[in-house]
Design goal:
With 150 residues, the protein is mainly alpha-helical. It has two domains: 103 residues, no CATH class; 45 residues. It is built from six helices and three strands. A hairpin with a 4-residue loop joins β2 and β3. The longest helix has 30 residues. The termini are close together.
Length: 150
């Protein structure tokens, strides 16, 4: 049962990732009439929202775009930072939405951010518990495999 649940979760995640990449690729070929880059669009959206303390920075990872609330910066991949496609501007606008939610202390976003922290912590623990259990003798081999989700 655990294996089926694991495989189903993995399949859903991979399907979602495939869909996002396919949609992004399709719209990355669609130029915008304004000719604005993702960085310019993000700057304008933030300015119109009254947000002046968020930096817009470029990074290399494709589709690794995100809003960093701790450092108050909007991180765009090079393709989206310099891009003039509908995909580039859409991603930039999406990340601006996170900055706007942060400014407004939007409750569902606060819950999501708390869940992200707990999930990161849990994923680290889950990785080490089976090893710790096997080497200390607290868990048998079979129990360790079940704990790791394999």
């Amino acid at each position: 049962m655990i294996l089926i649940l694991f495989l189903l979760t993995l399949a859903i995640g991979l399907l979602a990732q495939w869909h996002v990449k396919r949609t992004y690729a399709r719209h990355s070929c669609t130029p915008v009439q304004s000719g604005h880059t993702g960085a310019e669009a993000a700057h304008e959206i933030l300015r119109l929202s009254g947000i002046t303390d968020v930096d817009i920075v470029e990074h290399e990872e494709l589709l690794g775009d995100h809003y960093d609330p701790r450092h108050k910066r909007l991180v765009l991949s090079s393709a989206n930072y310099h891009g003039t496609s509908a995909a580039a501007l859409g991603v930039a606008a999406h990340e601006c939405g996170h900055a706007m939610q942060h400014q407004q202390a939007y409750a569902p976003r606060q819950l999501r951010m708390a869940a992200v922290g707990v999930t990161r912590f849990a994923s680290q623990i889950v990785m080490w518990i089976p090893l710790l259990g096997m080497f200390t003798g607290l868990l048998t081999g079979k129990t360790s495999l079940l704990a790791s989700g394999a």
